[in-house]
Amino acid sequence: MAAINVSAIMPDLLQIAKKAGDAIMEVYNQPASFTQITLKSDQSPLTQADQAANDVIAAGLAALTPDIPVLSEEGKMVPYEVRQTWPLYWCVDPLDGTKEFISRNGEFTVNIALVAGTTPVAGVIYAPVTNELYYTNGQDGAYKKQGDQEVEKLAVTGKTEKLVAVKSRSHGAPEEIAFLSQFAVTDEVRIGSSLKFCLIAEGKAQLYFRHGPTMEWDTAAGHAILAQAGGKLTNPDGEPFTYNKPSLLNGSFLCSGWQ
């Protein structure tokens, strides 16, 4: 992180995320019949909003940090032979929760993370429908700001006697139920996108286990925020969860509201 002062650029970074959210909302607020939905090569949906948000973020980051490369879900894929040499890069999901966007439940986010080597060190998650910003500069904690309200410092609850598990709105697997059975889970919350990480970071849940596949840009910003709030994201066996892998596909992982 020596090459960049994240604290100094955080206000600009938050504005980039909000402008991307504005671009998404321009599409979201159109009549549903006007929203063009296509399919990517892996058959996941791509809307006008994904590309509009990506254009805003790509331009904003290029102006803010021209020497730091960007790896984005909607951008050009970069071969591992190239990106393995990157000491720092932005890992971006312009619209996380496209299925939530299409179903119009509001549970989608803009994700921007700064990755140093193989570890996310700073990040921003913006939920445009609720105007909620979650962020960390990687140095002095994680924070939430909703609308014009005061900034709130985030903190996990720690390992409590009664645990709340957060689960995906659109995905699920029997393996997740089996894995979580080893914990004293007494309640569950279902929510879309990277907001699952945020719920743990702000102490509203303590566990999130994901068995099904995700991509690095789905988890990087949430990983950074959760870590700075006092929680952690690891492989199911407790080993470190790393980024900038030869394959950008993530394996299973566990988020917890304690170290």
UniProtKB/TrEMBL annotation:
<dbReference type="InterPro" id="IPR000760">
    <property type="entry name" value="Inositol_monophosphatase-like"/>
</dbReference>
<feature type="binding site">
    <location>
        <position position="95"/>
    </location>
    <ligand>
        <name>Mg(2+) 1</name>
    </ligand>
</feature>
<comment type="similarity">
    <text>Belongs to the inositol monophosphatase superfamily. CysQ family.</text>
</comment>
<dbReference type="GO" id="GO:0000287">
    <property type="term" value="F:magnesium ion binding"/>
</dbReference>
<dbReference type="InterPro" id="IPR020583">
    <property type="entry name" value="Inositol_monoP_metal-BS"/>
</dbReference>
<dbReference type="Pfam" id="PF00459">
    <property type="entry name" value="Inositol_P"/>
</dbReference>
<feature type="binding site">
    <location>
        <position position="73"/>
    </location>
    <ligand>
        <name>Mg(2+) 1</name>
    </ligand>
</feature>
<feature type="binding site">
    <location>
        <position position="218"/>
    </location>
    <ligand>
        <name>Mg(2+) 2</name>
    </ligand>
</feature>
<keyword id="KW-0378">Hydrolase</keyword>
<keyword id="KW-0997">Cell inner membrane</keyword>
<dbReference type="InterPro" id="IPR050725">
    <property type="entry name" value="CysQ/Inositol_MonoPase"/>
</dbReference>
<dbReference type="GO" id="GO:0000103">
    <property type="term" value="P:sulfate assimilation"/>
</dbReference>
<feature type="binding site">
    <location>
        <position position="93"/>
    </location>
    <ligand>
        <name>Mg(2+) 2</name>
    </ligand>
</feature>
<dbReference type="GO" id="GO:0005886">
    <property type="term" value="C:plasma membrane"/>
</dbReference>
<keyword id="KW-1003">Cell membrane</keyword>
<feature type="binding site">
    <location>
        <position position="93"/>
    </location>
    <ligand>
        <name>Mg(2+) 1</name>
    </ligand>
</feature>
<comment type="function">
    <text>Converts adenosine-3',5'-bisphosphate (PAP) to AMP.</text>
</comment>
<feature type="binding site">
    <location>
        <position position="218"/>
    </location>
    <ligand>
        <name>Mg(2+) 1</name>
    </ligand>
</feature>
<protein>
    <recommendedName>
        <fullName>3'(2'),5'-bisphosphate nucleotidase CysQ</fullName>
        <ecNumber>3.1.3.7</ecNumber>
    </recommendedName>
</protein>
<keyword id="KW-0460">Magnesium</keyword>
<feature type="binding site">
    <location>
        <position position="95"/>
    </location>
    <ligand>
        <name>Mg(2+) 1</name>
    </ligand>
</feature>
<dbReference type="InterPro" id="IPR020550">
    <property type="entry name" value="Inositol_monophosphatase_CS"/>
</dbReference>
<keyword id="KW-0479">Metal-binding</keyword>
<feature type="binding site">
    <location>
        <begin position="95"/>
        <end position="98"/>
    </location>
    <ligand>
        <name>substrate</name>
    </ligand>
</feature>
<dbReference type="InterPro" id="IPR006240">
    <property type="entry name" value="CysQ"/>
</dbReference>
<feature type="binding site">
    <location>
        <position position="73"/>
    </location>
    <ligand>
        <name>substrate</name>
    </ligand>
</feature>
<keyword id="KW-0472">Membrane</keyword>
<dbReference type="GO" id="GO:0008441">
    <property type="term" value="F:3'(2'),5'-bisphosphate nucleotidase activity"/>
</dbReference>
<feature type="binding site">
    <location>
        <position position="96"/>
    </location>
    <ligand>
        <name>Mg(2+) 1</name>
    </ligand>
</feature>
<feature type="binding site">
    <location>
        <position position="73"/>
    </location>
    <ligand>
        <name>Mg(2+) 1</name>
    </ligand>
</feature>
<dbReference type="GO" id="GO:0050427">
    <property type="term" value="P:3'-phosphoadenosine 5'-phosphosulfate metabolic process"/>
</dbReference>
<feature type="binding site">
    <location>
        <position position="218"/>
    </location>
    <ligand>
        <name>substrate</name>
    </ligand>
</feature>
<dbReference type="GO" id="GO:0046854">
    <property type="term" value="P:phosphatidylinositol phosphate biosynthetic process"/>
</dbReference>
<feature type="binding site">
    <location>
        <position position="96"/>
    </location>
    <ligand>
        <name>Mg(2+) 2</name>
    </ligand>
</feature>
